Amino acid sequence: MQPAAILKTVILGSALAAATVATASAECIRMTNVHGFTVIDDTHVVLNGGTRHHYLVTTRSRCPDLRWGMQIGTTLPRTGTVCSPVGEYLVSEDGWRCPIETIEEVEDLETAEALVEARAQAEAEAEAGTER
To answer: What's the total number of domains in the chain?
Structure first.
């Protein structure tokens, strides 16, 4: 599979799964609508589907190569539709398979970054509370 096809496939597959998991009323994501992605960190990627559609993809565990490997893909065909991320992966350039936990629609990249930061802070606070 060509790097561009891999990237589009990963982006769309992740976006569809997250949108479906986030809300019961979310629609499926068509992979052909995803035109790019932005890596937030080693567990979060935002798929871009035009100016009005952005999808936050969260992997089940750290995927270190997301930050450095800009050729990522999914296990879905480029023309597929994703309604649930079950059994779907982000695949880095060097072949690491990172299972997708969730895909959720967000307003824009800034909203996705703020959401990731807020969740990390809440998790850190919860861990600090259990250590007391």
So the answer is: 1
